[in-house]
Q: What sequence folds into this?
């Protein structure tokens, strides 16, 4: 914002090797007209040819603000602000827990019935988090637009205090990711991110590759089709191949081991040592946690799927954040087959596509072992054939096949 007040901006020029600061050039304190001229010149030099008219994929619709409370910032934002305030006060030599305001608040909380004060405190945190989420949404997506500004450049503009304009060349755009976090999915929303080279490391790629804010899922599917330049919506037009039921069992077992058992054992131990009433809390927790684990594991298993559609590999996975990827098959530079003792007994393999873009590795989780190699061969012929043996996946716990240079 200070540079903006002076009519200046920063220009960052990225390449496919721009990870952790390498291969990227940043020009600070450039005048805005000069920045636009420089960007146009660089894009024209990289891709000579006649420019076409703008094709707008999406613009901000302020009705989308209703999706802001369903993002991470509702509760996570309150935690971030509270943690930052605590570190600042602690750095000043002030112990927040000993201040009169905090002690009075805890005393008042303890003097009242917890079944009343706990929901009230949760509602207050949700209200504060919703206001913060709205503020973050406005700052990030003010005057948002995404458009093909010429035949081969996808440009995303957004921002209030800090304006951002990211131009993605068509040759660097290798796919699109549809994100549906649990709360946002329940509200019928989704967001879209680009899988593109030259955006930096994983964190930078996540931030700079955003193509659409939390918005209606129908709008997200339309932006996905527009970014991929397909006449139909690929994520809806093709049914995904489901994964084996063994993948469901793995998720149930992991949930029981890491969520149900630790809490149950802790409550049982506390009940035996401290208060017998906690023994009843243990079986209540075990019952509720087991039911929730089953529901989440079932949703995660139903989300698993993959398919090949034209030039794209489609992959879907996740429950807390269900992500659907449309990845250019020609962008894959290596395949990695990964399994563990438990997965091998269940006949499952995770196939990971290495790409010089985005997060650089995109897994197809818990495939049937017999389907992993055929999927890799069908997605990108000519890479694995020379390595194939009678049982290439079952013979090793981990292996990688690279695309010939």
A:
């Amino acid at each position: 914002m200070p540079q903006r007040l002076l009519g200046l901006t920063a220009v960052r020029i990225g390449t496919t090797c721009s990870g952790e600061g390498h291969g990227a050039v940043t020009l600070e304190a450039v005048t805005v007209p000069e920045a636009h001229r420089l960007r146009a010149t660089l894009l024209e030099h990289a891709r000579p040819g006649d420019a076409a008219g703008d094709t707008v994929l999406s613009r901000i619709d302020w009705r989308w603000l209703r999706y802001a409370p369903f993002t991470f910032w509702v509760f996570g934002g309150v935690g971030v602000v509270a943690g930052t305030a605590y570190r600042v006060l602690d750095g000043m030599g002030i112990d927040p827990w000993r201040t009169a305001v905090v002690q009075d608040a805890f005393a008042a909380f303890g003097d009242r019935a917890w079944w009343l004060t706990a929901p009230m405190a949760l509602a207050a945190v949700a209200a504060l988090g919703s206001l913060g989420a709205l503020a973050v949404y406005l700052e990030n997506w003010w005057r948002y637009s995404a458009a093909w500004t010429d035949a081969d450049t996808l440009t995303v503009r957004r921002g209030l205090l800090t304006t951002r304009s990211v131009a993605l060349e068509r040759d660097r755009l290798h796919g699109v990711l549809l994100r549906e976090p649990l709360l946002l999915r329940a509200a019928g929303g989704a967001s879209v991110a680009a899988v593109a080279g030259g955006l930096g490391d994983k964190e930078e790629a996540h931030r700079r590759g955003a193509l659409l804010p939390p918005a209606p899922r129908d709008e997200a599917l339309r932006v996905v089709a527009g970014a991929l330049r397909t006449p139909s919506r690929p994520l809806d037009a093709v049914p995904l191949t489901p994964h084996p039921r063994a993948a469901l069992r793995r998720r149930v077992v992991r949930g029981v081991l890491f969520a149900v058992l630790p809490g149950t054992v802790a409550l049982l131990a506390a009940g035996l040592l401290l208060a017998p009433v906690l023994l009843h809390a243990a079986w209540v927790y075990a019952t509720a946690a087991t039911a929730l684990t089953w529901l989440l594991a079932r949703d995660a298993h139903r989300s698993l799927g993959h398919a090949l559609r034209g030039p794209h590999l489609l992959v879907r996975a996740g429950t807390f954040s269900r992500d659907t990827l449309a990845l250019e098959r020609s962008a894959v530079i290596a395949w990695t087959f990964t399994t563990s003792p438990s997965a091998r007994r269940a006949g499952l393999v995770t196939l990971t596509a290495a790409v010089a873009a985005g997060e650089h590795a995109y897994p197809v989780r818990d495939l049937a072992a017999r389907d992993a190699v055929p999927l890799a061969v069908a997605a990108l012929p000519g890479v694995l054939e020379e390595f194939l043996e009678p049982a290439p996946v079952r013979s090793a716990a981990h292996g990688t096949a690279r695309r010939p240079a």
User: Anything to note?
Assistant: The longest helix spans residues 245-273. The chain has four domains: 2-56+145-230, 64-139, 245-302, 329-402. The CA atoms of residues 337 and 399 lie 5 Å apart. The chain is about 45% helix and 25% strand.
